[in-house]
Amino acid sequence: ARRKNGLPRHHRQSLHRPHRPRNYDEFLSTALSQTGNRIEVEPLVVLEIAFDSIRESPRHPSGLALRFPRITRIRRDKSAADIDSIATARKLLA
Prior knowledge:
The strands form three sheets. The protein has a two-stranded antiparallel sheet. A two-stranded antiparallel ribbon has the order 3-6. Strand 4 and strand 5 (64-67) form a beta hairpin. 21% of the residues lie in helices and 28% in strands. The chain is globular, with a radius of gyration of 18 Å. It contains three helices and six strands, in the order H-H-E-E-E-E-E-E-H. The protein is an alpha+beta fold.
């Protein structure tokens, strides 16, 4: 049941199925807009993101890109009113 890549058949098959998180429908229910694969949702959860650096990017609507971003924790003690803005992120470029 193994191939050249060393993965059992059931793992190989799961690589070809689109992954859908358990609460995907709940996530989509908070969607404000959807364009292609970009979904804008209500800001209900605050995530703390660590990154290596921040750069200007014409590909993203914000004009910024994080290099090597990773979620460090969910901030249940914060609300959407407490998050940093794009203007704050732009100051990190300087």
